[in-house]
Amino acid sequence: MRQVRVLALSVALAGLTASPWAQSRPAKSWDETFRTLPQPANLKSYMQRLSARPHHVGSAYDKENAEWILAKFKEWGWEAEIERFDVLFPTPKERRLELVQPAKFTAKLEEPTLVVDPTSGQKTEQLPSYNAYSIDGDVTAPLVYVNYGRPEDYEQLDRLGVSVRGAIAIARYGESWRGIKPKVAAEHGAVGCLIYSDPKDDGYAMGDVFPKGPMRPSDGVQRGSVMDMPVYPGDPLTPGVGATPDAKRLSLSEAPTLTKIPVLPISYADAQPLLAALTGPTAAENWRGGLPITYRIGPGPATVHLKVAFNWDLKPIYNVIARLPGSTFPDEWIIRGNHHDAWVNGAADPVSGISVALEEARALGELRKQGWAPKRTIVYAAWDGEEPALLGSTEWVEAHTDDLTQHAVAYINTDGNGRGFFNVAGSHSLERFINGVARDISDPETHISIWKRRQARTIARGPADERKDARERADLRIGALGSGSDYSPFLQHAGVASLNLSFGGEDEDGIYHSVYDDFYFYTHFLDTDFAYARVLAQTVGTAVIRLADADVLPFEFTDLAETVQKYVKELHDLLNKKQEDIRERNRQIQDDVFTATTDPRRPQVPPKVEPVPQAINFAPLDNAATALVDSARHYEKALAAATPRLAGNTGALRALNRQLRQAEPQLVDTAGLPNREWYRHLLYAPGFYTGYSVKTVPGVRENIEQGHYTDAETEVVRVSRALMRLVGLVDSASADLEKLARE
Amino acid sequence: MRQVRVLALSVALAGLTASPWAQSRPAKSWDETFRTLPQPANLKSYMQRLSARPHHVGSAYDKENAEWILAKFKEWGWEAEIERFDVLFPTPKERRLELVQPAKFTAKLEEPTLVVDPTSGQKTEQLPSYNAYSIDGDVTAPLVYVNYGRPEDYEQLDRLGVSVRGAIAIARYGESWRGIKPKVAAEHGAVGCLIYSDPKDDGYAMGDVFPKGPMRPSDGVQRGSVMDMPVYPGDPLTPGVGATPDAKRLSLSEAPTLTKIPVLPISYADAQPLLAALTGPTAAENWRGGLPITYRIGPGPATVHLKVAFNWDLKPIYNVIARLPGSTFPDEWIIRGNHHDAWVNGAADPVSGISVALEEARALGELRKQGWAPKRTIVYAAWDGEEPALLGSTEWVEAHTDDLTQHAVAYINTDGNGRGFFNVAGSHSLERFINGVARDISDPETHISIWKRRQARTIARGPADERKDARERADLRIGALGSGSDYSPFLQHAGVASLNLSFGGEDEDGIYHSVYDDFYFYTHFLDTDFAYARVLAQTVGTAVIRLADADVLPFEFTDLAETVQKYVKELHDLLNKKQEDIRERNRQIQDDVFTATTDPRRPQVPPKVEPVPQAINFAPLDNAATALVDSARHYEKALAAATPRLAGNTGALRALNRQLRQAEPQLVDTAGLPNREWYRHLLYAPGFYTGYSVKTVPGVRENIEQGHYTDAETEVVRVSRALMRLVGLVDSASADLEKLARE
Question: Which residues of B are less than 8 Å from A293 in CB distance?
Fold first, then answer.
């Protein structure tokens, strides 16, 4: 679902030092054997099969793909089954968009068939371009251009004296997740929202357009969900529980995650006449796109008629769940997933990822034939319904929360994959572990390790502090997870330590969520020889095998503790900066700076004086972060000392691993985040006003950002307690290890 | 000549403190009376008259305007005359530009007549669009897009493995002065150069195009000189001497300031088919303009035929020189100028400025009728030939160098004027003086002082350090002068303390140097009610009167000294940054960072290892700057103590003022700057590779920038000596004042 553009990982210079979890590599080096198995030819054939026809939720080919995947798992020796849920999934009944003033223009809302591209014309099976979970609506109103439609864009509109109240907002794709645009527009009183792909962002400005090049053609449209997923993902009618046949369901009108206003995505060919008909203030430089027009804000005189109506049906989704049972610790599960549903043919998103998961599954089956028996149970999942709302993964997690609490060790996710640099984000308790994996994987283009190549990228592009980190810190820095793919329910609802892995950063494309994301496109413009599909399979498979076979689970807390300290410093800095900025702005208002500098031909509205934020008592958080640093170091030392005694001591290992599996859940609070209880992780969440992008320590950070300083202080205490719970757990594990070492 | 976009002035909070040069305000407050005299209706009528027909060098109306200006000066009671020089001024004989591969396209090279704009169709008198002082040429070669054509753009081309050798470079206008683009292209081996106006920079991206709005229409072309003026301005055939009938002239082939390759400016309508026909690497984001195409670098396959041929004639230029003789110190001259020639009708450039000078002259004549007799001689100059090469002012300064050395107090320049904020740049010995003037002028839009409004702008837009300066420093910071108008020969060749004044910053336009810069345009889109023309007349007239009537010339050195310290710190920082950057880049090259991060589909060429710059002995400069701080403070104190004794003491005043007039010349070295001896000021020069933009302490700064560290150290010594000469002079004046105070 998520478009991979940003590289989420920094890297480090030093080699892997000898450490207790080096033992997680199996004696027979099964992971080395594994890495010889993935084959580009297989990866290509899976993609060709899975992307041959449109396979969105509820389509015939979605079900066929699920059944084909099921059959493959079984063929490769896995226990496998399809687990079905029934979820709300609206599809378009009517879509109409017209400019009615000052001239007439009817939007085409149609992506043309291209002769060279054999699947682009499968019209009878394609979903038309739309934004899922828009409400029905029929509105005629003046248009206002809102740039990317973020809260800060509305602050600029306020300065210009322009309001979207009663208007239709037109926002461009990019910068924030699409669902944020109608949400913020509605909060400001808009009655409708259009979202268009500007050629500056993924069209001709970036390169030749498809089919000549990989960028978005003039009629290309980005489909996608606009559900309010920062409140909760999954079926809107069954929050917190699996959408099983007997689940209690909200009525449509009760569902809080549908949009408040009608929304429609459009192409730049359809957007240009609308934007060109706006008058009002000229858009500032960072509001201008790549169309050959003067970007203006409005409101009007462009007046637009927008009508959308949907079939509000429940549709079946088919998760394929496959298992290899563990030999030693069968009750400990290593879970690995990628979705199989697409908006249309979805060769890049998600087939480039699910193909990799399948090739891993084939190779793991092959290893078993060679005599390998994983110590832990391995669960592979091919999720359905990720595109609309992480439906398959969310409903499954909600239906299996108790299982996960008892059994889950970690969840590894992938989604679309590309060519270039290794990206990893996730739980920082797995930072050192995934660094170890990355050091052992060879990059197909440069033949250095993917770790070394990523380090070079950070050195080449990063600011000085990141360069220094990359050269001197023992481990790669991994990113934190927001949302945008199926890790969200595992990490942020169930508290399962998670990682999200991919390669990318070399190719740009403009076919995301369009009919052109297909086999022809992928094999002409992206990872055309499946070299990076192979290397992703090698990477994930290596991680799965090491997690499955490790004596001591490779959780580690010194990197986590240092990262938490970094976040805490960011929170201090954020508050300081807000105080400084507001103090400075108030001073300027009081000194008449705004009235003195305004141009009478282009008058601006001065901002209002705001109270300067009060100081916040960060001491509990500062102390907890420091305590975690000490606790993590202590554990590291205790584990090293006890390692000789742990070898072959299954009881002690089981006890230690039970504690380690409880580490991530200590960071979870079942009361959830302020105003969105589904999200329970106190360190990581998608931003309430960014959508995909992570907000770390979200309860504190977002309250500061939104000016709720008292609430921020309350959250400081809650996060501190969670950190102290983790300290307690780690200290207890250390004490047990020290006792064992003394025995 | 120079397009006014950048605001060159910072401001300060404190009021004018009682100071010795407060006395420069005449007892009868003639300057207050003066400020009531300028009339918008007059300003408008001068503009209408002077811009009624094209009036470039050599045209009939250029001469008619000179004669009309002469008559006006005489009418207002001035002694006035026309002073003629004969200079090389090429005009087009043939201009041809075609795309010959991969398709045929012939450029129009023509700005259409617009029905609403009565002077846009004066075809028989208009100069066609061209770049003056391009050599003749007839070349056919592949095209390469070079962005703004600056040296750093060629570094990017090197990384991409693209060379302009044997190619025609196409650069967009902006960022550097236009003459730099063919100069740098030729240095890199290009055989021709096109310069086009991208719509992102002054076309539709910025606003509606003319005649609907003020931005550049698709066929609009920016004319302008491409002579190598950073070597020397003025007649290419008579460097350093006035172009009088008997002057020794170089032959055309000896003239070093003509371009090395043929050059032609074009519109974006003509540029688009050429740029669209390029392939090769996609331009990076900051290389992309606003055309609806994918910007690519080339080289080719676009192949272009460029042919230009010129009439290489000598043409007469007519400077109008007018005088009001001084009553007390007739041998001390206050000089004030603005050019009168234009590229076409030139309502904004230069008529919006020369009209102001005329209205000042009328008002000063009026003051004389009321009984005012300026103590010093006032010289007003209406320069010809500024557009091609600062011809009129340069030849006049070269012809009158001895007069200037003996008599000149200061030179005040204006050029085109607009609406908004007060801009001032010039000699920092006049910084405090011009601050005092600005505090007494009222802004017509906000009715606060122009000083206060400029302060507010700096606070509103500046970074924290500039905000702090603006609030806490006693005076406005004024900019330093590079080039682009007639102050250059006064300040940088003759060493006359100079100021350049204007208003601007509220309106953008795209008619610069086109046929549309005319009365219709100006009165629809710029300072339409001539309110800022009036306020510029008030500002300059006040400055002229105060300079003419001051007992003690208002030169002051504490601001200069502090500014020099700032420059010296910048030089330290520049060297440190170069050392760090080169050290870092070398490390990355040696660590294979470039080869590790290159994309095999878009290979880049790693940069080469460079020696890290050696340390430079800045001590002489540090010491001289410190000495100047002490010396300036000392003078300030000595002047305050002696002021009672100076009153009415004409002999002492004459002696002191002689010393003060010698201050700026101490910063001059007749040996000139390295490789360009015409430029003699050691603190201020236009950049050798920027053209208009100033390089302060140019001998040191440019040698560091260009990697000539030994030469930089030599220049450190030379600049230090100049500063110490100034210290000696100021100390001598202080000693004389102390002696006087003791008498």
Answer: 204
Using CB atoms, which residue from B207, B445, B461 is nearest to A294? B207
Nearest residue of B to residue A457, measured between CA atoms? B597
With CB atoms and an 8 Å threshold, state whether B290 touches A292.
Answer: yes
Q: What is the CATH number of domain A20-89+315-549?
A: 3.40.630.10
| CA of B421 vs chain A CAs: smallest distance (Å) | 9
Count chain A–chain B contacts defined by CB atoms under 8 A: 94
CB spacing of A588 vs B213 below 8 angstroms: no
Q: Flag whether pLDDT at B14 surpasses 70.
A: no
Q: Given a cut of 70, is residue A11 above it in pLDDT?
A: no
Q: Which CATH class is domain B27-88+315-421+486-549?
A: alpha beta
User: From the CA of A503, how many Å to the nearest CA of chain B?
Assistant: 13
Determine the average pLDDT of the residues in B85-109: 98
Q: Which candidate from B293, B452, B596 shows the least CB-CB separation from A456? A: B596
Q: Do B592 and A456 touch (CB under 8 A)?
A: yes
Q: CA B206 → CA A561, A605, B290, distances in Å?
A: 49, 22, 10
DSSP string covering A486-553:
THHIIIIIS---EEEEEEEES---S-TTSTT-SHHHHHHHSSTT-HHHHHHHHHHHHHHHHHHH-SS-
Residue B356 pLDDT > 60: yes
Which of A206, A597, A604 is best to mutate for the B interface (most B CBs within 10 A)? A597
Domain coordinates in residue numbering, chain A: 20-89+315-549, 91-311, 558-742
User: What is the SS3 assignment for A563?
Assistant: helix
- Our CA-based measurement puts residue B640 at a distance from the nearest CA of chain A, in whole angstroms, of 33
pLDDT at site A743: 84
| Residues of chain A positioned with their CB less than 8 A from the CB of B292 | 199, 204, 290-292
State percent of chain B over pLDDT 70: 96
- Chain A residue with minimal CA distance to B285? A206
Rounded to whole angstroms, how far apart are CA atoms A167 and A186? 10
Examine the pLDDT at A23 and tell me if it is beyond 50.
Answer: no
Tokens 């169930």 locate to A494
Output the pLDDT for position B743: 84
- For the CA atoms of B176, B177, B183, B189, the dihedral, rounded to the nearest 10 degrees, stands at 40
Helix B531-549 to helix B40-50 angle (10° resolution) is 100
The predicted structure's pLDDT at residue B333: 98
Q: Is the dihedral of CA A285, A289, A290, A295 positive or negative?
A: negative
Answer whether residue B22 shows pLDDT above 60: no
Token pair recorded at residue A349: 């998103």
Which residue type occupies A201?
Answer: D
Supply the ipTM of this predicted assembly: 0.93
Give the strand pairing for B137-145 and B91-101: unpaired
- Cα three-residue angle B224-B229-B234, rounded to 5 degrees: 90
Question: Chain A partners of B204 at a C-beta cutoff of 8 Å?
Answer: 292-294
**pLDDT reported for residue A134:** 98
Q: Can you tell me the mean pLDDT for B555-564?
A: 98
Answer yes or no: is pLDDT of A13 > 90.
no
Q: Confidence class of residue A692 from pLDDT cuts 50, 70 and 90?
A: confident
B91-311: which CATH number, 3.40.630.30, 3.40.50.300, 3.40.50.2300, 3.50.30.30?
A: 3.50.30.30
A601:B506 CB<8 A: yes
pLDDT band at residue A731 using 50, 70 and 90 as cut-offs: very high
With an 8 Å Cβ cutoff, are A213 and B294 in contact? Answer: yes
Third-level CATH fold of B558-742: Transcription Elongation Factor S-II; Chain A (1.20.930)
Q: What is the pTM of this model?
A: 0.94
B572 closest CA partner among B689, B478, B700, B686: B700
State residue B27's pLDDT score.
53
Mean pLDDT (whole number) for A128-140: 98
* Cβ–Cβ below 8 Å for A456 and B204: no
